[in-house]
């Protein structure tokens, strides 16, 4: 079953000055079609207390809501899918747990992992990191523009048409060159959430990607 995968994946994040709910309200007011709730600091009860109003906001705007990592919450709220950041995770087991109707995203930083996730039932893959990121610190080699071009070419050579999303340190000035590689879109967090004017920053990305 082919799922809707947007070109602009907007991720919330744990910030002291603005709640996840407020972040989603800003994004949806600016046209967000895809919101990924990425919370790493709260209990299940605290997350559900945020997810329910966030799901209502997304429903009002017709926005897809994805939750990062917390598979067990997917059936406890109006959530359309889950994104798994553990690159070593067995995505086939996650698929069995969430069912075929939910959207399943996975993270990868090399072609072998991309192919494994595709085989195991992912609907899209977030690849990277593109460059330096403080949102999700890691020691993985930066992909740069060339990394995405090579991944897209390798899939094409294998006869595979599959949505790849560039993630990790993507800035506004990178979007045009990234899209030229043939990837589906980009994932953005801090470039919007830590901007002086979040709504304006979101709209700038949105306009480049739609």
Task: Explain briefly what this protein structure is.
This protein is an alpha/beta fold. It has helices at residues 20-29, 44-61, 91-98, 111-119, 144-157, 175-180, 190-193, 198-209; strands at residues 8-11, 34-37, 64-68, 81-84, 103-108, 124-127, 164-166, 185-188. The chain has a single domain (8-209), classed as TIM Barrel, CATH 3.20.20.70.
Key features of this structure:
8-stranded parallel β-barrel; TIM Barrel; alpha/beta; 8 helices; 210 residues
Report on the architecture of this protein:
This protein has 210 residues and is an alpha/beta fold. It has one domain (8-209): Alpha-Beta Barrel (TIM Barrel). It is 39% helix and 16% strand. The protein has helices spanning 20-29, 44-61, 91-98, 111-119, 144-157, 175-180, 190-193, 198-209, and strands at 8-11, 34-37, 64-68, 81-84, 103-108, 124-127, 164-166, 185-188. It has an eight-stranded parallel β-barrel with strand order 1-2-3-4-5-6-7-8, surrounded by five helices. α5 (144-157) links the parallel β6 and β7. It starts with 7 loop residues before the first strand and ends with a helix. Residues 19-192 form the Thiamine phosphate synthase/TenI domain.
